Amino acid sequence: MAKVQVLNESGQVAGELEVPTKFFSYPVKQHLLYETVIQHQAKERRGTAATKTRAEVSGSSRKPWRQKGTGRARVGSIRSPLWRKGGTVHGPQPRDYNYEIPKQARRNALKSALALRFSENRLLVLAEASFKEPKTKEAIRLLKALDLDSALIVDRAANKNLFIAVRNIPKVKAVDADQLSVFDVLAHKWLVFTQRALESLVERI
What we know:
It is elongated and about 95 Å long. It is built from seven helices and six strands; from the N terminus they run E-E-H-H-H-E-H-E-H-E-H-E-H. The strands form two sheets. The chain has a four-stranded parallel beta sheet with strand order 3-6-4-5. It folds into two domains: 2-46 and 100-204, Ribosomal Protein L4, Chain: A (3-Layer(aba) Sandwich); 51-91, no CATH class. By secondary structure, the chain is α/β, with parallel strands linked by helices. It has helices spanning 21-24, 30-44, 103-119, 136-146, 160-166, 182-187, 195-204, and strands spanning 2-7, 13-19, 123-126, 151-155, 172-176, 190-194.
């Protein structure tokens, strides 16, 4: 078992928490982190880009002139892609960019991200992060006490005051322990767990 310091809301050491040694000693696999981030970004794409084909652009379907005898090239429709204001050939159409990666790969990528932040000494554990009111100033006070400028705070969704207090602060985000993602971990300099959130994550992983 490895021991991790637990801090109070003033940034002072309040105790220690034992976690399995292998939890933070997992090797940092860069290729898994890369694949997981790319998959996350692909899932977030709206995929609404679209162009009109010759069947969708406005214009008559009448043949502009007779096939032979005019000296001009044969044309069947003014909506031809060869013409100005004609349809687009092989243009983008609405689509879903999402794809899945294996469950074990996602789990190992999360282990790698946690191990990376731990090796960089950018992982903190708080005894708790309870606010009396859902006020932004309460969250700012906590961040100043911990000297954090960019942080991902992981707690249980039941702590609504925390989630409301940090949502207007740039570069700071609060997530539920069950919704923790590799993308969020890597997008913030610091990773901050509450004690109950870390214990829950250890059990799940």
